[in-house]
Write a structure and sequence with these properties.
With 188 residues, the chain is α/β, with parallel strands linked by helices. It contains six helices and five strands; from the N terminus they run βαβαβααβαβα. Helix 1 crosses helix 6. The structure holds flavin mononucleotide. Flavin mononucleotide binds next to helix 1.
């Protein structure tokens, strides 16, 4: 069981990083092999709409997202984390999603869906406001999960969180994250 965690915050060791890592610790404790990708560490371009992926289902931009595409194909379960920026996903997260247009074409044009059952996936998000607009980010994440062959099986949404590292003091969320990670690893 491979669980892939994607950190869409540019802030290493920030709240998203810590919270996604916590889910992965829960998954590892339940026997999963876990891997974490920090988008902020990668060098990649946004989708340029060239449509080269339309007849092939493969993105021609040769940068750090190529191995991420492979990991997304091979994962048995996924945790996507993005803080809310300007009522939506971070630019790093949205650029990854746009660069998955190749998967859209694979599914809708070439009719090659991901083999097997839909894999479980969790959306982790947080924001500094008392009521971050999670509902504006969720439809994009749901569509992305579905196109890549993941089912939106859960979410962990945390408001009122700004300083890096503050998440570890939210004891209820911190222990719930461990449970969500464990449940993800035993699901299937
Ligand atoms: C450019 C920018 C835009 C932001 N926009 C929002 C927003 O619209 N709503 C919100 O609740 N928080 C917003 N925030 C606050 C972050 O979501 C918050 O600080 C979060 O804890 C950052 O997560 P991280 O530690 O994982 O980077 C914004 C922060 C930045 C830097």
């Amino acid at each position: 069981m491979k669980v892939l965690g994607i950190i869409g915050s540019p802030r290493a060791d920030g709240n998203t990083d810590l919270l996604v890592s916590r889910l992965l610790v829960g998954a590892a404790a339940a026997g999963a092999h876990t891997e974490k990708v920090r988008l902020g560490d990668l060098n990649y371009r946004p989708c340029d709409g060239c449509e080269s992926c339309k007849p092939t289902g493969v993105c021609v931009i040769d940068d750090d997202l190529q191995p991420v595409h492979r990991k997304l194909t091979e994962a048995d379960a996924l945790v996507l984390g993005s803080p809310i920026y300007w009522h939506g996903l971070t630019a790093q997260t949205k650029a990854l999603i746009d660069r998955c247009q190749c998967f859209w074409n694979l599914r809708t044009v070439l009719r090659k869906a991901h083999a097997g059952a839909r894999r479980p996936a969790i959306f982790v998000s947080l924001g500094g406001q008392r009521q971050p607009r999670f509902e504006l980010a969720i439809p994009t994440v749901k569509l992305w999960f579905s196109v890549l062959g993941f089912a939106y099986t859960g979410q962990l949404l945390v408001p009122n969180l700004d300083s890096p590292g503050e998440i570890v003091r939210r004891e209820d969320v911190w222990s719930h994250a461990l449970e969500i990670g464990r449940d993800l690893a035993v699901r299937r």
